[in-house]
Design goal:
The complex is a heterodimer of chains A (114) and B (477).
Chain A: H1 7-16, H2 23-40, H3 91-95
Chain B: H1 8-16, H2 22-40, E1 43-46, H3 48-63, E2 75-79, H4 106-113, E3 117-122, H5 156-163, E4 169-174, H6 180-186, E5 189-192, E6 212-217, H7 220-230, H8 248-251, E7 260-264, H9 274-289, E8 293-297, H10 305-320, H11 339-350, H12 353-366, H13 371-395, E9 398-402, H14 418-422, H15 429-434, E10 438-445, E11 451-458, H16 463-476
Parallel strand pairs in B: 2-3, 2-4, 7-8, 7-9
Antiparallel strand pairs in B: 1-3, 4-6, 5-6, 5-10, 9-11, 10-11
Helix pairs in contact in B: 2-3, 5-6, 7-16, 10-12, 10-13, 12-13
The chains are: A mainly alpha (114), B alpha/beta (477).
Chain lengths: 114, 477
Amino acid sequence: MKMKVTEKDVCYVADLANLALSAEERTGMVRDLNSILDYVERLNELDTTNVSPMAQVSDCYGIDNAKQGSERFAYASREDIVEGLRKSLPQQAALENAPDTDGTFFRVPKVIER
Amino acid sequence: MELKQLGIEAARSAVQDRRTTAFALAEAHYLRIQKEDEQIGAFLTLCKERALEQADRMDRMAAEGKPLPPLGGVPVAIKDVLSTRAVRTTAGSKILEHYNPLYDGTVVARMEAAGAVILGKTNCDEFAMGSSNENSAFYPVHNPRDLSRVPGGSSGGSAAAVAADMAVAALGSDTGGSIRQPASFCGVVGLMPTYGRVSRYGLIAFASSLDHIGPLTKTVKDAAIVLRTIAGRDPMDSTSADVPVPDYVAELQKPVRGLRLGVAKEYFGDGLDDGVRQAVESAIDKLKDLGCEVVPVSLPHTPYAIPTYYLIATAEASSNLARYDGVRYSYRAAGVKSLSEMYRRSREEGFGAEVKRRIMLGTYALSAGYYDAYYLKAQKVRTLLARDFEEAFGKVDAIVTPTSPTPAFRLEEKSNDPLAMYLADIYTVTADLAGIPGISVPCGTTKEKLPIGMQILGRHFDESTILSLAHAYEQTA
């Protein structure tokens, strides 16, 4: 069986996903991703040439079909106003759950490396 | 007050008529949790102060002779993926171990406004990713019907809490079967409403085009009461639909005689446990006795549902979970020296194995060169799956299937084989993909006395029909 995903691919994808996988995890991931991707291969049995993709269930109900494009979802649009549906959080509250702050800002390690 | 089989109306009227108090009812449930939950593990966090304050509010109303709202004084449990203001909300993950939301999700606010007393937050698979509850970062949940078995997942804590009478009702979430499958495993009722029927505002997102919130209850009527409470348009969720909410409780009485029930052979094939097959077939016979007409239907793309689901759900999850960066509210790894190291190590240490697996799969399926072959392909097959249902619902009013191919399996039985675990959702993922509503209602037990669930699927926004069928069936049992 041809391996679809190599350890190199796993490293590349882990990098994209911002995950520092251990060596052991990488090995497991190669095994699991290949096994799952092998299984999903069966989708290629289906001819989907003229089938449009479905991104959202709400694409197909509860809307006025007489309208075009985004007009169909007019009910979901609202005025873009500050302090609209919900009040902005007070600064203190917004910082409450942060792992590190200086009382005014979120604190993070140095962004610019040299 | 006897908690066994205590339903919403009985609990509410006992508080209303001053035969008990909401306070005493909440305390009785906490006592039961204290006694039972050590071995079950259904709860992650209890919020007794908040519960007793609400109970007190209800008791004062009752004492003044005011009519209580529909859930007045009723003790409920909330799955830990739903935001509760100032009450720890972990989504079953270490990355949110110390997270206290700053607001209530819409469903939580609506439940409380309807008088419900929130006892606490229920255990679940991490970020609702799992079918056994073994992916909780804290501890697994044991099935109250047989402690050596899983309660199902991912809303396993909610199902177990209701099954063990530690709550009268609970809220769960369903992305691939996470309400219906645990309801089936624990012998309770679980309802996944139509996509958009219930606001997702305040739900910690797993896969946004597939996530649904719904009730787990002891009876179908209770599911209707909870749905009536939480359904309806919410401006805070742009995908919540602007469709009128019927009185689901009144509509339970709609006659089922003459309804056409679809039975699809694709849901009765290989891998279906014999005991489950027999129970569901005899439940279908009972529905026939009630005057329903059984019509064979075909849902030919069913075998492609699991692969479609695991591409779409993981792709959406990889995007949704990008927000856990260790800056604003999640876990941060210690001793990191750069921003990039902070992201990588915090996520590596904060997420569990299954979550990382899904983030990886989803990121892979969305990455350059693979997007068309995997993600776009899956979205196209999703259209075909939705069309299967559209066609079937041209001929029938509802479709009846088993909820799960097997009864509850043993802890650790499938935990080392992700693919085998994914297949536990084989009969439930289709409804999530198509966005149609589905209910699981208990329909007997296996020889080993394990609960079995029958699933009834309906048309978009036609919860009334599946509720009335489930209710009519329940009355025959």
